[in-house]
Amino acid sequence: xxxxxxxxxxxxxxxxxxxxxxxxxxxxxxxxxxxxxxxxxxxxxxxxxxxxxxxxxxxxxxxxxxxxxxxxxxxxxxxxxxxxxxxxxxxxxxxxxxxxxxxxxxxxxxxxxxxxxxxxxxxxxxxxxxxxxxxxxxxxxxxxxxxxxxxxxxxxxxxxxxxxxxxxxxxxxxxxxxxxxxxxxxxxxxxxxxxxxxxxxxx
Length: 203
Fold this sequence. Notes:
Nucleotidyltransferase, domain 5; five-stranded mixed β-sheet
């Protein structure tokens, strides 16, 4: 399948894009979003959320919610990540996002190289957040939502620097994890967190 850059329709059918954010962090949920864009209300500036500044993402977030034909945000919890593993939890979050769309799509384009187990006609699109507008929009909704949550969790669990690194394994985060130990929002199935738990159990 050849996809032109930033297509918004797929062979004339109602098409949704879905993407997830938060596979790599040591803490917090994995968040997914699904979007069906409205060709009558184009949104300027859509791109892979990682390529946009925080200011630009924040500006696009309400535009997507206002102008999209349908949108949804879903997640898989830290507990589900630890029970299922991060890959399956990410697939679950994307499945929930698409299933929660008020307007159900006829076809779904999924960012990446895997498709969740579901009833939808779908295709995986490598680097889809740079190639498909609906996936780009989904990536923005998911990233802004998760970033906002991590800023809130920084207030709840001070000392880890969550507002800055958003849960990713930076030097600051690793040092805090070693000094303070894991919190309830840390993924215990992830190596660095599991290591700290094992060390604490040996004390």
